[in-house]
Amino acid sequence: MIQEHHASALHWDFRLERDGVLVSWALPKGLPVDPARNHLAVPTEDHPLEYSRFSGTIPAEEYGGGEVTIWDQGTYDCEKWSDREVMVVLHGERAEGRYVLFPTGKNWMIHRMDPPPDGWEPLPERLSPMLAVPADRPPEGDDWVYEFKWDGIRVLLWVDGGRVRAVTRNGNDTTGSFPELREFGEAVGSAQLLLDGELVALDEHGHPSFSRLQRRLHVTSAGGVRKAAAADPASLMLFDLLHRDGRSLLGAPYRQRRQQLESLGLSGPSWAVTPFFTDDPGSEALRIAAELGMEGVVAKRRDSVYRPGARSRDWVKVKNHRTQEVVVGGWTPGQGNRRNLFGSLLLGLPADGRKGVLRYAGKVGTGFTQAAIEDLLERLRPLARKSSPFDEDLAREVGTDVTWVRPVLVGEVRFSEWTPDHRFRHPVWRGIRADKSPADVDYEP
């Protein structure tokens, strides 16, 4: 029998009847399905046979305190049993096949000897998210459905054995910055999933707040992360399912992926499946998004497959306000109370076909908190260089008292419109985009 045990750390108690007791191992990641990957098996004390029927709550003050459920039961054939090797064939509803347990030091490992089940596919180790094309208005028609566009950090989430790994668009593992994800992984349990979603921080009105999320991303120490999580808790909004229990869903139409995502029942204190609109026209979905303080909507074709890393016209994003991702190319000195800091950042977009060269888009001097200024300077000073990264002479426009930097830091501004010479009008700094690299920055007219 196998029990799912939500104690101080989620694990699965693997128990085999032997000589009148249940010989037991704790499996932190459950039974392996892939013969290429062994799982840790920690020997624990033998349990009485009566424990095979136990499902319930162990009091917190007792050993193993937490929730216990029966994950699977059945019979097994014993092919070998010694101090060095236990080989069995499992006949359960969920656990089937030949397994061997063997010691490696003080702990053991468990290995699946049979091939994976027919049609089983391993989780891809790396994947890039599918991207939407920008538009002024959402497309209309029965072929489209509409989701809210969340003002946060896009992540793909690998969930395996109750553990989560969250990776941003530029491939950075951001799991450690969001301890809320541990509870989400434990709630998923034994399911093996690859999900697409957004990490957001909500304000006191329940609206996504990019500035609150910025505060979370600027914390590095473990203690600081815990304090930041308490002050500005993050939420996980899920909108796509790409892999489920050994089956890739990349080639399945969106409507099927959505149905499977909703069937998982992923709703908790800091995670949910984002709502979507199927009967309302796109203009109405955009109006509702504006009323709720959302960034906008993403329209998706019902039958669209998931194309990793592609910017596809099967997905269309429409914003309620204008924002643009930018690359910082330098700064000008500040005045007054910012005399020893910077006055404005010089912003650009990657020049077509010229790596490391920027097309100037304007400067921004508002929207910074004191903490943001200090954090930016700490990031920018090591990037200082003698020459300008821009493709034009800016001396007349920005002066000569400029500190140029290597164009690697990505941020985001909000602005009213583009001027005829493609400069920002009334830009306001929103924050660093640690989830983006310069190669991810596209001009959004």
Features:
445 residues, ten-stranded antiparallel sheet, 7 helices, 30 strands
Report what the structure shows.
It is a single chain. The chain is mainly β and 445 residues long. Helices cover 14% and strands 41% of the residues. It is built from seven helices and 30 strands. The chain has helices spanning 180-188, 210-217, 222-231, 254-263, 282-291, 370-380, 395-398; strands at residues 2-6, 10-18, 21-27, 39-48, 56-58, 66-72, 74-81, 86-92, 96-104, 107-112, 131-134, 144-149, 153-160, 163-168, 193-201, 234-244, 247-248, 271-273, 276-277, 296-301, 311-319, 323-333, 342-350, 358-364, 384-385, 403-405, 410-414, 417-418, 424-425, 428-432. The strands form five sheets. A ten-stranded antiparallel sheet has the order 5-6-1-2-3-4-10-9-8-7, with no helix packed on it. Strands 22, 23, 24, 25, 26, 27 and 30 form a seven-stranded antiparallel sheet that branches. Strands 13, 14, 15, 16, 17 and 18 form a six-stranded mixed sheet that branches. The protein is elongated, with a radius of gyration of 26 Å. The mean pLDDT is 92.
